[in-house]
Write a structure and sequence with these properties.
about 475 residues; alpha/beta; 12-stranded mixed sheet; about 25% helix
């Protein structure tokens, strides 16, 4: 089979802002002093400082999961800046941002998105949120949307009630790390019966070399409410590695609906290690939509714990791995209540020695009768050097559970390209059409503006790279 120079890993967001000033920049490394400095600088309550210290102890003691250790044997936790605070306070007017930051986010399209499409916007630069705006009509509905640091100050009871309730510090080594050094991230609370008509968005940017970003996101959708949250990510290209280790906790109350969309385009030097989990109560619905193009290594398995009768969960993901990249992604569905339903659709593309891995779990607890789950894994391999792996795990504790799993691995056939080219398309256009058709089940779930952006991002990666 002929191969073409299709390079989805080409990275267009790789500039860095060299003249950004920082108000607080501790030494590299992780210890009690680092944690205390972060908490002191933020003026946090005593219970959060104690939680950070306890989490650091858990991180120090807890071994790394075997597949993590294999994938990143060279990571040095003492060669990372754990807290970088830009020398600017958070603002709600775009013109009040420092000129360099404005230029950065204008390149990323954040102001245009804020003006045209979004109900509210948060922009995080390094460790801190530097811009946030919540629309007045959302505030009138009682919707709370701010960064996590603001939420800890202004809504301490809500934060204390739910922080760590879905993902405790001891869940894994990186949830402990995040809880110890978290900064920024988004907080959303939607009152009972309220529907947030437009998506809320956050954008996370790592600018410095050897920087870590550890945002913490907490979403609470109260009974009968609905919300859609979208996040994007980028970083410059450096020779040294950066670490992004976020934690996302979502509480879906009875009959509520939450959609969480990620459009990730980290640079190829970022370790992206994220823990995402939702707890869904009776007749609630949780949907994760994951688009992963960048990073050196992504290890991310959005999970849904269906704890109420007739709760439903869905994970739709697409990942591309190019030269030197490994996308180790998947999903977890835990059926802990009767008549719960889940669906996982995973699409992956690999080229030039790229590695894609699906790692998933479907578990049906004893007593959770009448459950249904379906898993679909499709891999597209674009040359002989690339690899696709699948590791599905099924743990079924009830006899009447209906569990399905299907997996396909395919290559782009010469016949497909020949047919499309015979209709007047170039090799580049034909290859792009096949790839976009392959990921279309994910693209069609996005709001129109983001579907256009996602397709355009794919096309930009391929421009001039074929033939």
């Amino acid at each position: 089979m002929a191969t073409f120079d299709l390079d989805l890993s080409k990275y267009d967001l790789g500039w860095s802002d060299s003249d950004v000033e920082y108000a607080f920049k501790p030494h590299k490394g992780l210890n009690d002093e680092t944690v205390d400095q972060i908490s002191w600088w933020k003026g946090e309550p005593d219970w959060m400082t104690k939680l950070r210290r306890r989490s650091l102890n858990i991180f120090d003691r807890k071994p790394m999961a075997e597949w993590f250790a294999v994938n990143m044997p060279d990571i040095d936790f003492q060669d990372i800046y754990y807290y970088l605070k830009p020398a600017t306070d958070q603002v709600s007017e775009w013109d009040d941002l420092p000129e360099q930051m404005k230029k950065t986010y204008e390149k990323l399209g954040i102001p245009e998105a804020e003006r045209k499409y979004l109900a509210g916007v948060t922009a995080q630069y390094e460790s801190e949120v530097v811009f946030h705006r919540n629309r007045e009509d959302l505030e009138q509905q009682g919707i709370l949307f701010c960064d996590m640091d603001t939420a800890l100050r202004e809504y301490p009871d809500l934060v204390k009630q739910y922080f760590g309730s879905v993902i405790p510090p001891g869940d894994n080594k990186f949830s402990a790390l995040n809880t110890a050094v978290w900064s920024g991230g988004s907080f959303i609370y939607v009152p009972p019966g309220v529907t947030c008509e437009m998506p809320l968005q956050a954008y996370f940017r790592i600018n410095s070399e050897n920087a870590g970003q550890f945002e913490r996101t907490l979403i609470i959708a109260d009974e009968g409410s609905q919300v859609h949250y979208i996040e994007g990510c980028s970083a410059p290209v450096y020779t040294n590695d950066s670490l992004h280790s976020a934690v996302v906790e979502i509480v879906v109350k009875p009959s509520a609906r939450v959609t969480y969309t990620t459009i990730q385009n980290w640079s190829p030097n970022v370790y992206n290690l994220v823990t995402k989990r939702a707890r869904v109560e009776a007749e609630g619905h949780m949907e994760w939509i994951d688009g992963n193009i960048g990073s050196k290594l992504t290890m991310k398995y959005p999970s849904v714990y269906l704890v109420g009768p007739k709760a439903t969960g869905e994970v739709l993901s697409v990942a591309y791995a190019g030269p030197g990249q490994h996308q180790d992604a998947g999903a977890k569905m835990v059926h802990a209540a009767p008549e719960t339903t889940s669906k996982i659709v995973s699409k992956s593309i690999s080229k030039d020695g790229g590695i894609t891995t699906y790692r998933g779990l479907v578990r049906v607890e004893e007593g959770a009768y009448g459950c249904k789950s379906h898993v679909q894994c499709d891999a597209l391999i674009l040359d002989e050097e690339s690899t696709s792996k699948t590791f599905p795990y099924m743990e079924v504790g009830e006899r009447d559970a209906q569990i399905g799993h299907e997996a396909t691995v395919s290559k782009i056939a010469d016949e497909q390209l020949f047919y499309l080219m015979s209709r007047g398309l170039s090799q580049e256009q034909a290859m792009g059409m096949v790839v976009n058709g392959f990921i279309e089940p994910i693209t069609r779930t996005l709001p129109m503006e983001y579907a256009v952006e996602w397709s355009r991002l794919i096309e930009l990666q391929m421009e001039g790279s074929v033939g």
